[in-house]
Amino acid sequence: MNYNKTVPTNTVTREMNQLCSQVGNVYETVRIIAKRANQISVETKQELEKKLQDFSSVSDNMEEVFENREQIEVSRYYEKMAKPTLCAIYEFEHDEVYYKNPAKIDTQSVK
Prior knowledge:
Elements: H1 3-6, H2 16-19, H3 26-53, H4 62-67, H5 69-80, H6 84-93, H7 102-110
Helix pairs in contact: 3-5, 3-6
């Protein structure tokens, strides 16, 4: 997903009662958002490392490292991307995150 076009990168004040209305628990809502933010962070890091591997060579010297404009542009693009937490909150607000609580499922099936 291209987060640059959909997720606002500025600070937004959110109403916690409205944000946790789907789950019903503030702490569980924060846990869900945090886990999704970690997933997004790992995906982004892997994607960046894969793109930067194209620029690595065995015989790099200091001059080549500083003059590689393409690598700098790729790095700048990833620096300007929305933070993983903002992306996770956006997905949670727009019902794009699937989550389940095994403890609640087990207690409901026992009754």
